[in-house]
Design a protein that fits this description.
It is built from 13 helices and no strands. It is mainly alpha-helical and 422 residues long. The chain is elongated and about 225 Å long.
Length: 422
Amino acid sequence: MAEEVGSGGGGEQRGDEAAAVVAERGPGAAYHMFVLMEDVLEKLKLLTYEEEALRRHNMRPLSRHYFALPTNPGEQFFMFCTLAAWLITKAGRHFEQPQEYDDPNAIISKILSELRSFGRPVDFPPSKLKAGYGEQACYVLDCLAEEALKYTGFSWKRPVYPTEELEEEEITEDDAELTLNKLEEEVAEEESDNEENFIDLNVLKAQTYKSDISYSVKQEEILESTTDAAEWNLEVERVLPQLKVTVRTDNKDWRIHVDQMHQHKDGIESALKETRGYLDKLHNEISRTLEKINSREKYINNQLEHLVQEYRSAQALLSEAREKYQEGSGGVTERIKVLSEITEELERVKQEMEEKGSSMTDGAPLVKIKQALTKLKQETVQLDIRIGVMEHTLLQSKLKEKSNMTRDMHATVIPETTVGAY
């Protein structure tokens, strides 16, 4: 089976077909088979084809683009037939496993008939599957895999995305302390985000008025401090750990992104300083190599100039020969057409001659003629006999009439004589 599937010189034909497909269905049609092949591979993995199909026949697993690109047409066709038969069996139908030396046309017709029995449309010729790869092969396997998944009761579910767990990290001592401005901004954002809370302007004015009065009274009362500086410092050291605020780091905060950008920038600048020297050295080496290549190319062009001229002249002669060949091929096609017409006319004349020859060599008319001649001879003999009888009858009647006449004459003559005698 693998030997009958030839790859041959059909590369140009496949290229023309691919170009026609691109022109009809758009520029993305040439890459549709790659997407379809990836879908087929995922469905085969869901059906555990490696354990059930490949290990049984000692085959290697498929690559992502196995049936999309031509590698080994014989091997690809056998793999296609094997997987198709296995998928049809998985879909609940009985299908014999194809062998290596079976007729490929019979196997393809069986696979397509099973595909039509599933209600799948087949709008391409069966010869497209002989190569063992291409969009048609991927389409057949995809339809059979879907039917097998339906038969096994498989159903696609919604994807479940993993939740990202944010790691709780404590900020260092410098970042943990929130300044007054940041704290006020966060409080303002919380108050703005809370839709249930609202601000009464009258109450706010009364509160601000009371706070101003209390502040002015306290300012008048406290004019100089009587607190000891050492006790103040001790109190500050005691309360300082409680004043520190630890917040959770949010990876979506723009400040963290800015810090990361600055860190990456510093890393890039430091790496650039180290690699700039290597890049400059590499650039110089490449420049010297390019100069050598250019000089060598010029030298080779000068040395091979006469060969280039000969090649150009040979190309011109080849183009002229191709033109003559095209003209001659056009005349040959016309002559072939005339020859076919003459051959048809000759066949017709031969057929007529055979019919006439068969009619001439046939002995039935001659037998009929001989029978007619014998019949004519018999009738002639009978007529001769009748004529003879008639002649004899006439002769007798004439003789009788003559005898009667003579007798009458004698009868009339005798009395006269007798009268004269007396």
